[in-house]
Amino acid sequence: xxxxxxxxxxxxxxxxxxxxxxxxxxxxxxxxxxxxxxxxxxxxxxxxxxxxxxxxxxxxxxxxxxxxxxxxxxxxxxxxxxxxxxxxxxxxxxxxxxxxxxxxxxxxxxxxxxxxxxxxxxxxxxxxxxxxxxxxxxxxxxxxxxxxxxxxxxxxxxxxxxxxxxxxxxxxxxxxxxxxxxxxxxxxxxxxxxxxxxxxxxxxxxxxxxxxxxxxxxxxxxxxxxxxxxxxxxxxxxxxxxxxxxxxxxxxxxxxxxxxxxxxxxxx
Length: 268
Description:
Elements: E1 2-6, E2 8-9, H1 11-28, E3 33-37, H2 50-58, E4 63-65, H3 76-79, E5 101-105, E6 112-119, H4 130-140, E7 149-155, H5 159-169, E8 175-179, E9 189-190, E10 196-198, E11 203-204, H6 215-222, E12 240-247, E13 254-262
Parallel strand pairs: 1-3, 2-11, 3-4, 6-7, 7-8, 8-10
Antiparallel strand pairs: 1-12, 5-6, 9-10, 12-13
């Protein structure tokens, strides 16, 4: 059983990288389930539209996760209620539209995969305590009891929160990965009790940039130059960035985890 998890899709460049490379990655690696973070997929790099979500699903994505930019497009609050394959962070305020986790079927319909979307508390949009939310989910979704496999996308700014969640779920989750910082970390591994982990799996977008935004304009904004304008996505060739987890069907835990970098300026 192989699960593909891709980092934040960053604007048109990221979407083009998905369009160009995803089908080949799925076919060549015999992927049974594909997840992507879509919160930056819109043309301006903020939010996601129904059209873009449907485009990603049509290209082979099974579930879209998100983060602090989930409500940047007004239409999302409406279509997320009907589109269960689009998740928002589970620790958003009670009553928020949509769902923070769900149980889905693999591409061959044989296995149940839980996908859980969490968001950090530090330097992020105000949310409920992510660790209390994680504790409730831990007790509700139990590997090999009510799901065959499970994946957590922890959308957060700081590494310590991500690492703590990884170790907390170790042994009761197939994989825990971080998103949001748009830079892939080099700590890809399987934790002590069998959960695959990486602090951040990077982004799908143009790395010849400042976390996906046009580098020249970003530098101007840091220097507070008068001709700096609102951030906008870099338009160069995008890299497909994420991980592939090979999971054991009997235990639901990871046997192997590999970083994935395809195309663009970031060399794997």
